[in-house]
Design a protein that fits this description.
Order of helices and strands: HHHHHHHHHH
CATH superfamily of the largest domain: nmb1532 protein domain like
CATH topology of the largest domain: Four Helix Bundle (Hemerythrin (Met), subunit A)
Number of helices: 10
CATH class of the largest domain: Mainly Alpha
Helix content: over 70%
Shape: globular
Largest sheet: none
Strand content: under 5%
CATH architecture of the largest domain: Up-down Bundle
Distance between the termini: 43 Å
Length: 239
């Protein structure tokens, strides 16, 4: 991180965070985990093992598709809300999103090139893909910081928490079951125990039992034993 980036981060990061509704933080924690795991997975892939290569590239494709949909959701709901009341506030992240979609398309093509390559070229192309994914992840980490600070500041200045919850609910209503479960798989383990219990507690109170069970089942294999014990205690799940 450059000195300029650090200065920019400090300018947008208050010493204390107001207890406001934050629609960015949970999904961004999941995205950071998803990105980091996928980058690590691609970095250690055995390109001479067809099954290992297919699994690594499959996880990458899943991440890229998820990121593209995430960009669309933020454009449609969050950026629209910011621009409605402070038109220029989200200009930086709007421009970032256009670049992200271009990067996602390029990474899809590079992944296909690795899969289609002959043995002599696959090592070289896989290393290129790994390095380009690392750059994409690095850019997204900085981008998410701006969203969680500068964009949230704009939202909090112009919307009540009730209005923000309503925007978030409309966004969630557009996500299909498969994408929702994929998001939960990465997001629930990435949360703090308190955030995790709050999310599952709200779901348990308002969602059908089979939906809660599906979320628990997709997240549980990725929770440490201590985290699972805390969740069952705090939410009243069957151990």
């Amino acid at each position: 991180m450059t000195a300029a980036t650090l200065a920019d981060a400090a300018a947008h990061s208050p010493a204390t965070t107001a207890p406001r509704f934050d629609m960015y933080q949970p999904i961004h924690k999941g995205l950071r985990t998803f990105m980091g795991d996928t980058l690590s997975r691609l970095g250690r892939v055995d390109v001479t093992d067809a099954e290992d290569l297919a699994e690594a590239l499959g996880q990458l494709e899943s991440l890229l598709d998820f990121c593209a949909k995430h960009v669309q959701h933020e454009n449609e709901f969050i950026h629209t809300a910011i621009r409605a009341r402070q038109p220029a506030a989200a200009s930086r992240t709007i421009d970032d999103h256009a670049e992200h979609l271009q990067s996602i398309d390029a990474l899809h093509k590079e992944a296909r090139a690795v899969y289609d390559a002959d043995d002599a070229q696959r090592h070289v192309l896989a290393l290129r893909l790994y390095r380009h994914l690392a750059l994409f992840v690095a850019e997204n980490l900085q981008h998410m910081h701006i969203e969680e600070t500068a964009n949230n500041a704009a939202l909090w200045a112009h919307y009540t928490d009730e209005e923000l919850v309503a925007i978030h609910d409309r966004l969630l209503a557009t996500i299909g079951p498969a994408d929702m479960m994929l998001g939960m798989r990465w997001m629930v383990p990435a949360l703090t125990p308190q955030q995790r219990a709050g999310m599952l507690g709200e779901m348990k109170a308002g969602a059908p039992a089979e939906v809660v069970a599906a979320v628990v089942n997709v997240a549980r294999p990725h929770l440490a034993a201590r985290d699972w014990a805390k969740l069952t205690r705090d939410v009243g799940l069957a151990a």
